[in-house]
């Protein structure tokens, strides 16, 4: 059955192409309309062109609309995917530079248990506000639509909207695939592994790990023992699933941290660049170091340029199929490893991207039952966490909705008390600050930060942040 899917922030090209290819490879969703929405017309046009080519390639019955108007994309949608990052990476860099200027190494956002760099919990007023408005517009214009929230901070936004706006929503992330890195390293066949993760977004733990029906944690222990004297050599700054930091967290918490949880760790691994290198590997010291993040920014720039060039090539070869243009680009050596790999996946009719959006939609619309790991309101899934907090847990989805699995074995007490509780309190402070406009909460957030040595420092960093032209609304909200 066909549906209307709105993608907000669709200019994020690789992500949009993945979704378009997934829907083309899902015959049950034939007849669907995808409304691509972005404020950046150049990006939007490039994505629209590439998306149309993907549809031609597979001969699918999918139609596109493109728009810069938010209401247009939401109106009559059955599903709205929000992947927009307000202010983009440039704003993030500005906020981080201000943070570092005032002694908040690796940025004002690099809080303990909140190391992930595009979080900007303190400085993200625009991002929260945008997502909140999207939810309210859905309530007004398409009250039966599902919101699928992919843009960060997924934990804060899923909790905020689920509490405040009466619409159906989930948060999605692909972080749980980090578990596959472990299975691969241990030489396990995925289909014989019985596993679960649970926690909050970017704060999930491998609570169940069985291989051929038996506890598989001894396999991790053996791997750690065999590798303890070998140098950890990551292939890129994000390749940290089996880093010394991850292993150290496992030893302390008793279960393995999965995906970005390894970045979301503790100051112990982040005091300075040398420590970061020790725990996350040379040469970058992980994604959240000055060189690791630079690597990421360069990669994003490179991919943006390649996509632009590729879109140009498509325009020059209007009558050729996408696969033929891909071959042309390969011969001309115009692709870089990461994008080439992406394109191969996109062109492979038998391979889905791994993003959960389209399988979720297909399960709800066409009853194609599927197991996913989603962010939803807790309501008793992790007993020790309040019911009105979003958790990231394994679920079964079908036409009747979302059915959470029983979390078994339960998360260790240390994870609940010393990892999830502190993270939850930061989320609560961020949401209360956002809803009330009480700047004292932003201040308190920083007063509790180990990098703070005076109240002046707190006031100055917040003042300078609010002086940024992008933060006019934030300033109005907090300095009424
Ligand atoms: P990006 O800046 O490359 O792309 C985001 C897009 O949003 C851009 O095309 C931009 O023009 C658009 N945008 C900005 N303001 C907008 C507005 N007001 N209305 C509509 N569109 C707007 O960013 P990215 O690296 O693709 O990341 C996007 C978001 O997704 C971030 O929040 C990031 O943290 C998140 N992310 C989530 C996951 C996940 O698995 N959940 C994975 C990667 C990234």
- Total beta strand runs: 13
What proportion of the residues is helical, as a percent range? 40-55%
Shape: globular
Beta-strand proportion: 5-15%
**Biggest β-sheet: count, sense, barrel?**
6 strands, parallel
Strand order of the largest sheet: 3-2-1-4-5-6
Number of distinct helices: 18
Specify the structural class: alpha/beta
Q: Bound compounds, please?
A: nicotinamide-adenine-dinucleotide
* Unreliably modeled segments: none
Mean pLDDT: 94
Query: What is the straight-line distance between the termini?
Result: 49 Å
| Assembly level | single chain
What Rg, in angstroms, do the CA atoms define? 22 Å
Domain Glycosyl hydrolase family 4 C-terminal: 197-452
Organism: Marinitoga aeolica
Keywords: Carbohydrate metabolism, Glycosidase, Hydrolase, Manganese, Metal-binding, NAD
Protein name: Alpha-glucosidase/alpha-galactosidase
Describe this structure in words.
By secondary structure, the chain is of the alpha/beta class. Among the domains are: about 175-290, no CATH class; about 415-480, no CATH class. Helices cover about 45% and strands about 15% of the residues. It contains 18 helices and 13 strands. Strands 3-2-1-4-5-6 form a six-stranded parallel β-sheet, with helices on both faces. Strands 7, 8, 9 and 10 form a four-stranded antiparallel β-sheet that branches. A three-stranded antiparallel β-sheet has the order 11-12-13. The radius of gyration is 22 Å and the shape is globular. The model has no long low-confidence stretch (mean pLDDT about 95).
């Amino acid at each position: 059955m066909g549906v209307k899917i709105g993608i907000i922030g669709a200019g994020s090209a690789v992500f949009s192409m993945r979704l378009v290819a997934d829907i083309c490879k899902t015959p049950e969703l034939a007849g669907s309309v995808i409304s691509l929405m972005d404020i950046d017309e150049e990006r939007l046009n490039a994505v629209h062109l590439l998306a149309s080519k993907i549809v031609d390639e597979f001969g699918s019955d999918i139609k596109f609309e493109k728009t810069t108007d938010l209401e247009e994309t939401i109106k009559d949608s059955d599903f709205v995917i929000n992947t927009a990052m307000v202010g983009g990476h440039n704003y993030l860099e500005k906020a981080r530079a201000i943070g570092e200027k005032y002694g908040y190494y690796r940025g004002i956002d690099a809080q303990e248990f909140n190391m992930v760099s595009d979080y900007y919990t303190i400085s993200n007023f625009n991002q929260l506000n945008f997502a909140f408005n999207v939810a309210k517009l859905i309530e007004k214009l398409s009250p039966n639509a599902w919101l699928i929230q992919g843009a960060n901070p997924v934990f804060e936004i899923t909790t905020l909207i689920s509490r405040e706006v009466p619409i159906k929503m989930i948060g999605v992330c692909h972080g749980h695939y980090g578990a596959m890195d472990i299975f691969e390293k241990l030489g396990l066949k995925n289909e014989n592994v019985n596993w679960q993760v649970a926690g909050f977004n970017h704060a999930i733990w491998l609570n169940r790990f069985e291989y051929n029906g038996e506890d598989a944690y001894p396999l991790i222990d053996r791997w750690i023992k065999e590798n303890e004297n070998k140098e950890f050599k990551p292939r890129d700054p994000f390749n940290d699933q089996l880093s010394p930091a991850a292993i150290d967290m496992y030893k302390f918490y008793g279960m393995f941290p999965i995906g970005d949880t390894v970045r979301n760790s503790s100051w112990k691994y982040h005091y300075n660049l040398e420590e970061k290198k020790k725990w996350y590997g040379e040469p970058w010291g992980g994604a959240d170091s000055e060189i690791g993040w630079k690597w990421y920014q360069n990669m994003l720039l490179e991919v943006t340029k390649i996509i632009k060039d590729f879109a140009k090539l498509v325009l020059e070869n209007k009558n050729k199929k996408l696969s033929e243009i891909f071959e042309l680009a390969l011969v001309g050596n115009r692709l870089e490893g990461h994008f080439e790999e992406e394109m191969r996946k996109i062109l492979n009719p038998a391979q889905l991207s791994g993003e959960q959006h389209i399988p979720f939609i297909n399960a709800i619309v066409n009853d194609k039952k599927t197991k996913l790991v989603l962010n939803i309101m807790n309501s008793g899934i992790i007993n020790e966490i309040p019911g009105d907090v979003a958790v990231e847990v394994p679920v079964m989805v079908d036409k009747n909705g979302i059915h959470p699995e029983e979390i078994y074995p339960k998360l260790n007490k240390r994870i609940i008390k010393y990892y999830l509780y502190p993270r939850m309190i930061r989320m609560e402070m961020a949401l209360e600050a956002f809803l009330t406009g009480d700047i004292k909460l932003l201040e308190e957030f920083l007063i509790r930060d180990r990098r703070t040595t005076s109240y002046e420092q707190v006031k100055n960093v917040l003042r300078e942040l609010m002086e940024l032209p992008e933060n006019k609304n934030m300033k109005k909200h907090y300095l009424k």
